[in-house]
Amino acid sequence: MKGRTKCPRCATEFIVEAEEGRDSIETICPKCGHKFTIKIPDEDFTWEEHGEPRKTILPSTRPMTDRPIIVSFILIIVTIICLIGAVLPAFFIETPIAPLSAAGVKGSILIYVVDESGIPQSNITVSISNYINKTNGKGESIIRDVPLGLQTVEVEGYNKTIRRELFIPPFIQTSCNISLSDPTYTSENLVWCQTILIILGVIPLFGAYAAMKRRYLDLVIFSGIIAILSIGFFMINIALGIIAIIILLLSKEEFEDGKKGKRF
Questions:
Q1: C-alpha torsion sign, points 190, 195, 196, 202
Q2: What is the pTM (predicted TM-score) of this model?
Q3: Which tens digit of pLDDT belongs to each residue from 21-72?
Q4: 3-state secondary structure of 113
Q5: CATH architecture group of domain 2-49
Q6: Is the dihedral of CA 157, 166, 164, 146 positive or negative?
């Protein structure tokens, strides 16, 4: 008997002959030379390819959900919080340590006082948050159990009072060099904090756009990690970043892989 078949490699159709009663026949494509086996059932017949199975990219059949959109809104909230922190840097850097302050955690500071020529000055009065101390012969004064956050240090000597605003962190001792020739008041330079917050706020914004478009999964995951590192007021960004990554991992099949098709 004769029948028509199609080559699985080049899709060329051709006629093959088979003996009656056979279950299968081996044939070779006359065009590309591909060898394959044809199974002959009672009615229709199919083919079976030798070697590795063909790799076919199939479209995703998973239903779309709102999870990537939720991730996008979470990252937008992170961006807004970072930008607010850039406008109010002093408040921003103090809120993460508020729980530690409430728990009674204190900090310490080392003040080093010199004169106009850089010579260490002894017996200079140093005070911070109602704690008063004197510098030793090396011009040093260590004050412990200082409240965390921004504090004002006062140095009095030679009929001059110098005030400087400093940030007291938890767990580590901070230090500060003060010269009696310094201006009477200087505040903590928070430009570095503002710059970091702006950078940390812009990256999640790109991730939010990518999540909304369901593209660039790696960028969205990276944005969630940045959200965690940005901390935020009362550490809210840490929670938002973790939630975003969890939702993202549950919906990663909905994202394009950067080539063609969906992840599956």
A1: positive
A2: 0.55
A3: 777 888 888 888 888 888 776 554 444 445 555 555 545 455 678 899 999 9
A4: strand
A5: Single Sheet (2.20)
A6: negative
Q: Specify the pLDDT at position 60.
A: 47
pLDDT in tens, 241-256: 999 999 999 888 888 7
Q: How far apart are the first and last CA of the chain?
A: 43
Tokens of 161: 């009072």
Tell me the three state secondary structure of residue 37. Answer: strand
Q: Cα 184–122–120 angle (5° rounding)?
A: 75
* pLDDT of amino acid 219: 92
Which of helix, strand or coil describes residue 219? helix
- Domain residue ranges in the chain: 2-49, 67-91+192-254, 104-188
Pairing verdict, β 107-114 and 173-179: parallel
| pLDDT of 76 above 90 | yes
SS3 assignment, position 104: coil
> Which one, of 119, 109, 82, lies nearest residue 199 by Cα?
82
Is CATH 2.60.120.760 what the domain over 104-188 is classified as, yes or no? no
Tokens of 249: 């991992």
**Rounded distance, CA 211 to CA 201, Å?**
16
Q: Residue 87 corresponds to which tokens in the numbers above? A: 């406008």
Q: Give alpha helix (H) positions in the chain.
A: 67-87, 89-94, 98-102, 191-213, 217-229, 236-250
Residue labelled with tokens 């944005």: 223
